[in-house]
Design brief:
Length: about 325
């Protein structure tokens, strides 16, 4: 018994019976085999601690930016770009997403695959799906998606690793995103975003394209503000709320021209040299669909710019 009995009782019996019944009736899983699999999932207190931890104070942009825009992340991003040049060119040609943006996403998410997570995905999703009531429905759904993708890709679900929340591989896809957007970009018969950069690159590009990426479009434009009404233009949330013409009427002047009818977001960041004002274009909103944060999208955008500049200088 020993060590095995310590984990074997975590997810078995009544605790998982309803889930197993659903997977059997709706998706044709064999009940006994699924019960045996879930009995090997381990409840991880570290995962519950991580997700329950009070959110860190919101960093201002002047502190957030230096985390991601570093010499090391730029240099290693250029190396990643060089090593995967063919796949990046093919992804850009097929999906219209620039190579530097794809590299930047993977750079921000996992430092080009160096930090993809050390938890077994099944442990993360079982722990959160059965022992974290605040978001139990979400993570139970992701556990369902994970079991489906393991069956579809014919991989052992006990072997796949990810973050404490179940995000996986170089692009940190949740299982539902994997099933919806991951692609077999090297056409070898299966999708591997963990150790195959080609599939990870194609999958990230497909995600962006499917969320509305506009080929050739800018992401964000610096702006100056004037008058007494400019704060009325500041976007609440992430959804574009005004078009560029309306924003100009409120005192916003973009550094480069924006079509009047373009739907935009407008935001202020606390920069190292004072307040910065920015206008986010449709592609900016696409990046926030990957991670719902203005500063995240700005970090990706500025890392992409830095990568393109460094790449061009070589």
């Amino acid at each position: 018994m020993g060590a095995q009995s310590a984990w074997a009782s975590d997810y078995k019996g009544e605790k998982v019976a309803g889930f197993i019944a659903e997977m059997a009736s709706e998706y044709g899983f064999a009940s006994e085999q699924l019960a045996e699999l879930l009995a090997q999932a381990e409840r991880k207190q570290a995962i519950l601690d991580a997700i329950s931890r009070p959110a860190e104070r919101v960093r201002p942009w002047k502190e957030y930016r230096p985390i991601f825009i570093t010499d090391a992340r730029i240099a290693q991003g250029v190396d990643f770009w060089r090593q995967n040049q063919d796949a990046l060119q093919q992804a850009e040609a097929k999906y219209g997403v620039p190579a530097e943006v794809i590299v930047a996403i993977i750079g921000v998410e996992t430092f080009y695959g160096r930090n993809t997570g050390n938890y077994r995905v099944i442990d993360a999703l079982a722990t959160l799906g059965f022992d974290y009531p605040p978001r139990q429905p979400f993570f139970r759904k992701e556990l369902k998606e994970f079991l489906l993708l393991a069956r579809e890709e014919q991989v052992d679900p006990l072997t796949l690793k990810g973050s404490y929340a179940g995000a996986m591989g170089l692009p940190q896809f949740m299982p539902s995103s994997f099933r919806a957007y991951a692609v077999d970009f090297d056409a070898d018969g299966h999708i591997d975003i963990w150790s195959n950069p080609t599939d990870a690159i194609g999958s990230a590009a497909n995600y962006f394209k499917r969320h509305g990426w506009l080929s050739g479009g800018e992401v964000a434009v610096r702006a100056t503000v004037a008058g007494e009404r400019f704060e009325e233009g500041l976007t609440q949330g992430l959804e574009p709320g005004l078009n560029a013409a309306q924003l100009r009427e409120l005192g916003w002047q973009p550094a480069t021209a924006i079509a009047d009818e373009a739907m935009v977001t407008a935001f202020r960041l606390e920069g190292a040299e004072g307040d910065e004002y920015w206008i986010g274009l449709p592609n900016f909103y696409v990046i926030t669909r990957y991670n719902r944060s203005v500063m995240y999208a700005m970090a990706v955008n500025q890392l992409a710019d830095a990568l393109a500049k460094a790449r061009g200088q070589q």
